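Chain X:
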Amino acid sequence: MFFSPDLIVLACWASTAVAGQVTFRNSHKYYFDVDGNAIDSVNGKVEWIQGQYLWIGEPSSCGAEACDKVSWSSPNLIDWYFNGPLFNLTENAQYCLVGLGSCSRPKVIYNEKTRKYVFYGFATRGSGPATVPVFTSDSLTSGYTFAGEMIPDYAPAGWSVEDLGLTVLDGKAYLTFTGWNITSMYSDGHLGSIWPPFINPVLVQPLSEDFLQASGRSYPVHQAGTGFPIFPDSPNLIDGQFQSPDLFRRGDTYYVIGSGTCSFCPGTTTLAYRSASPFGPWTRQIVDCGNTCGGQAMGVLNVPPVAPGAEGAFVYHADSFSTAPMGGHITGSKGHAFWPLSFASDGSIEPIDCSANKTFTIDAPPATAPFPRIGGRAVNATDGSGNYGAYYSETGLITKRFLYQTWTSSKSGMLTEVGVNLALNAPAPNPITIVVFSYPDEATLLSPGFRWTELATKLVADTTDRSFLSFQVQRIEVNQEVQAGQRLGIALFSAQNGPRVWSLPYAYLVQDTAGTGTNHKLYAIEKGHISRDGPKGQQSPLKEVVDREIKWYATVV
């Protein structure tokens, strides 16, 4: 089993999770499933539902413009198992692919009376009444079928439903949604020459007993004493620029929390409202957290208490678009962030500490519901960089260097596969070559004329392939015998066929290894640098990238 650079901390993290504690770190920008793939979720949220932690989201790397809504389950908020799609998006195109959105911002709740799981996701038609597609299933993670459309009470002409949240409190369900006037955007493109392009306030809509329809009026969320509807010249304009809302309750206080209007931007204001009722009147608060620490709100995970009489945790969750090393399709290679909320004596939410090394520990019960635990390629690998490290992204188009990740095999046997996390950087004419190789020693590796022993090669396909939009594992089948102590490596460089292009047209993940004692070493050769250098001209142009390694794993059986 490989030795993670964060082994001591993370071993405690993993073991205490079973005992009822989980630690979140601001340095952890990326979360991974047990096969090593980065959690590919945009517009998603983590929920505690029916005895398990469930992460529902929209992937960016399915290879299509719009992707199926998928989920991951976890026993401990650390190890995530991919469940696959909740339903087939193409088969439900008449309900989901009707305009802006694709049953987006997916949310699921459970109805104890009907014993049905209920799915909501927005799909804006651009004309007609504001509707929200609703699906139901007998299973939490699959089998959802169309059950109709919910029309909120507040649906004036030209308005539609965008970002949404779902909450069940004391058996009653509430939809929180961003309503926006798409008529003005479609007619002239904006309300102002620069901003705002539209007004989008948040409303709370009670749902019927079966959770499928609206029940009663919609209640706007805005500072008490201010007006509604909201216009560009309204003194409370900020209440009309409110997205990705989520409703939760702590004690006798209700909260709606979300982001200032933002389209997958690298950081926006966190807004929070509190009231003694889910329908207001509301007290507005700007939560000081560095523009959501470079992210956009996804909601609040309500972690149940670990003991009777204890208070559960409220964990604010954001998509961290500022971590994405590229633009493209809603910055699919972004990370995620979690911050347990703290509350002042007046019920207001304390500022969130965005410090890079800040940690937050909560009490959290392990999951009680059984679910299929399929996979484990990364967490069960023989050698590797680890699945829980504080990885950050780099892009080869900026670093302009080829990479060579090396290690010493800890086991004799058949090296069946090697995996490395890569993401599409930008359209580029040069695909990337991944070579798994062996070499005798470091001196030989650095010497001129060195030729490796090739164990396996993979040419990563053309860069227009949308399936590379997030940091998924590129698996290289090797099936070669290796010996314990043998020096092995992974080479990442542009394809050798045709003119050699001195850049990696992809992004990769890196972590610091200082003080870990690992035998893993990362080497790089800079753009076009193919001659000796140094004070006496005796140094190899292939240099060690000290105390760094990319995210990778290797399996020997």
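Chain Y:
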Amino acid sequence: MVTGSVRAKAGRRGARRYLVDEWRDEAMPVNAYLVEYPGGFCLFDAGQTARAAAPGWFPSWQPFFRLSRFELEPEDEIAPQLRARGIDPKEVGLVVLSHLHTDHVGGLDAFRHAEVVVPRLEWERATGLRGRIRGYVPQRWPAGLEPRLVDFEGAVLGPFGSSHDIIGDGRLQLVPTPGHTPGHAALLVRDDVRSWLLVGDLAHTAAEVEQVAPQIAAWCRAEGV
């Protein structure tokens, strides 16, 4: 599901990017994925909140947020989209986050009842004052958020070096894919027939995966992912 889009400022060097009001024509989609497995529904990333498109949502002192702007309406949020498909957000018992940037956690308010899974390294880098300086917005997360933190101590899985079997049956495996952030992770989803790799912000197209992570792309082709 696409929970709105984000548009970046046109490429300019140095301080000019902050001073000139020119935006790229192409907007990037903000994605979230619903996975149905024998135990229920799992959400991979929670998308963005429509409040992010309003003035004042992001801290004015953080220059990062002046380089991008979000475009979405309330009905674009993940919870209304689930309801439109006949799914109550309360049916989602598990939320797995690739990382903690605002456009991947913005919809978490609708899933306070669910178990949230986050890579430990990502959580440690995103919380506290240092997290805010790095461009995270923990003050906008649901109050009292206490996720299950993952250390990637599981078996080697393909090119990933390690893994974490989230539900214990091999159907949902979190794998480390550092790059976009040091703690970034992807989700390998398997059923009895085939597999899918949900890559978060590792890349936005299959062609980008070939460019930024050719070893992962080669493994996916070999495994039929």
